[in-house]
Amino acid sequence: MSRTVYVNGEYLPEEDAKISIFDRGFLFADGVYEVTSVLGGKLLDFDGHAVRLQRSLNELEIKNPISKEDLLEVHRVLVAKNDISDGLVYLQITRGAADRDFAYPKDAEPTIVLFTQAKPGLANSPLADTGIKVISIEDQRWGRRDIKTVQLLFPSMGKMMAKAAGADDAWMVEDGFITEGTSNNAYIVKNGKIITRHLGNEILHGITRAAVLRFAASAQMEVEERAFTLDEVKDADEAFITSASMFVMPVVEMDGDPIGTGKPGSVAVRLREIYLEESLKAAV
Ligand code: PMP
């Protein structure tokens, strides 16, 4: 079945959607993206994603080709046209097509593309009952990870390293400290305290992270935002990740060793429930 996608102001069947080979997203990874989850036909955390999108565009000095209201409308139209109950909306904006030059072109019009992906049962992943296994890898991504760019080759390589090691994902390590997962933020829990890396250029500022930390604070859970080491992961009571498409996902193994009991921990399980419940309540 052909999907309807959105390209530069038009809704088109996916097979008719085209962008230029001179697009700087293609040539330089000169673009940004967002992924917003859809549950029960509604968008989770839309505002958070829209705000981060604007921030990423500002950092790269790319003109935003669409207002927040119109962007919400496009998301909703695609969800409706493609009959998405559970799934996601992928959005990418690039600097646009121009003759190849490392310097930013003066007059390029940004390219904007959105498409949906159906993921039936997205919130009922059986993995949430078992937890996932991760390995640690050296963080070899670039230094401005706070910008949500499409420069995703190293995260993609890391994911493949994890799969080759029989794990589900990798947590990246820099100067002895965990930065984050290949496509998610990383957390440990020790003596009831939730520990996750502080914001900075070293990690992506997860929208799910922000929401989960808010919910944790409302539930009187103790949170510490600081860098933590691989040894602390191995000594933790539990661990978990967050992202728009995984929500809160327990992590039960690191580099082949169980974390805590080797089963999803109670803090992760509770935060997953709270996140799904609260963000669905606020979903648009
Ligand atoms: N860190 C990285 C490197 C990511 O790619 C992502 C998700 N794409 C996240 C964290 C989680 O961000 P969010 O909760 O906004 O999906």
How does this structure look, described?
By secondary structure, this protein is α+β, with helices and mostly antiparallel strands. 29% of the residues lie in helices and 29% in strands. The chain has eight helices and 15 strands. The chain has helices at 24-28, 46-60, 68-81, 127-130, 153-164, 207-218, 230-234, 266-281; strands at 4-7, 10-13, 31-39, 42-43, 87-94, 111-118, 132-138, 169-174, 177-181, 185-190, 193-196, 222-225, 238-243, 247-254, 257-258. Strands 7, 8, 9, 10, 11, 12, 13, 14 and 15 form a nine-stranded mixed sheet that branches. α6 packs across α8 (266-281). The longest helix has 16 residues, at 266-281. The mean pLDDT is 97. 4'-deoxy-4'-aminopyridoxal-5'-phosphate binds at residues 35, 180, 183-185, 204, 206-209, 242-244.
Total beta strands = 15
Content of β-strand:
25-35%
User: What fraction, in percent, of the residue positions are helical?
Assistant: 25-40%
Shape: globular
Uncertain segments are: none
Q: How many separate helices?
A: 8
Structural class of the helices, strands and pairings?
alpha+beta
Average pLDDT: 97
What secondary-structure arrangement, pairings included, does this model have?
Elements: E1 4-7, E2 10-13, H1 24-28, E3 31-39, E4 42-43, H2 46-60, H3 68-81, E5 87-94, E6 111-118, H4 127-130, E7 132-138, H5 153-164, E8 169-174, E9 177-181, E10 185-190, E11 193-196, H6 207-218, E12 222-225, H7 230-234, E13 238-243, E14 247-254, E15 257-258, H8 266-281
Parallel strand pairs: 7-8, 7-14, 11-12
Antiparallel strand pairs: 1-2, 1-6, 3-4, 3-5, 5-6, 8-9, 10-11, 10-13, 13-14, 14-15
Helix pairs in contact: 6-8
Bound molecules: 4'-deoxy-4'-aminopyridoxal-5'-phosphate.
The site of 4'-deoxy-4'-aminopyridoxal-5'-phosphate has 13 residues, from helix 6 and strand 13.
